[in-house]
Design a protein that fits this description.
heterodimer; A: mainly beta; 12 strands; about 50% strand; B: seven-stranded mixed sheet; about 0% helix
């Protein structure tokens, strides 16, 4: 069964420090991996995705993520955290579609609250 | 960018009544929309996959007669919570994927609907 795990319920970092939000996955086949961010009482915003190619993926707001196939991980990173980065972050995996319907469900991790302190 | 509009953002209703939530893709066509429910502990649960012009596909454990989904056009899907009860109080989020683009495209999320059943 496909699954995604975010082992940390909350991550605390000081502003200006690098941040990492962890994600591991378990899927059959090649995974399509995504990171989303959610602000209070809002929907999710897309940050970045890994489909194929370079293992280091760059996304919105200075975030990046590194796909590691051997460790089945896709950790989210940012070199220098901002207070405004404080939010709820979700890792998600989608099993590749094989038909033309382009459906494909997203399976989400439990979410990690990022708290950046000034 | 692709925008998904969800309405209403908040609704309070009495137990036993029905509530309809609308999800619209504003600047793209979405053959597939997904409805999620978010619980207080943050996790997102996929309720159903809504396909334009056909019946929705419900996840295991989700009552299709209670959560009615209609996807009448390429830009609109609705979720109706029928005979709502306090335990249905939750944050409901819809998402949509653009029409087949050849590569897995990210989901675009609405801003969610906070349902409170009294």
């Amino acid at each position: 069964a496909q699954s995604v795990a975010q082992p940390e319920d909350q991550v605390n970092v000081a502003e200006g420090n690098p941040l990492t939000v962890k994600c591991t996955y378990s899927v059959s086949g090649n995974p399509y991996l995504f990171w989303y961010v959610q602000y209070p009482n809002r929907g999710l915003q897309f940050l970045l995705k890994y489909i194929t190619g370079d293992n280091l993926v760059k996304g919105s707001y200075g975030f990046e993520a590194e796909f590691n196939k051997s460790q089945t991980s896709f950790h989210l990173k940012k070199p220098s955290a901002l207070v405004s980065d404080s939010a709820l972050y979700f890792c998600a995996v989608r099993v590749p579609d094989f038909g033309s319907s382009n459906t494909g469900k997203l399976i989400f991790g439990q979410g990690t609250t990022l708290q950046v302190k000034p | 960018g692709a925008v998904v509009s969800q309405h209403p953002s908040r609704v309070i209703c009495k137990s036993g009544t029905s509530v309809k939530i609308e999800c619209r893709s504003l600047d793209f066509q979405a053959t597939t929309m997904f409805w999620y429910r978010q619980f207080p502990k943050k996790s997102l649960m996929l309720m159903a996959t809504s396909n334009e012009g056909s019946k929705a596909t419900y996840e295991q454990g989700v009552e299709k007669d209670k959560f009615l989904i209609n996807h009448a056009s390429l830009t609109l899907s609705t979720l109706t919570v029928t005979s709502a009860h306090p335990e249905d109080s939750s944050f409901y989020i819809c998402s949509a994927r653009e029409f087949f683009k050849g590569v897995p495209s990210p989901l675009h999320f609405g801003n969610g609907t906070r349902l409170t059943v009294t």
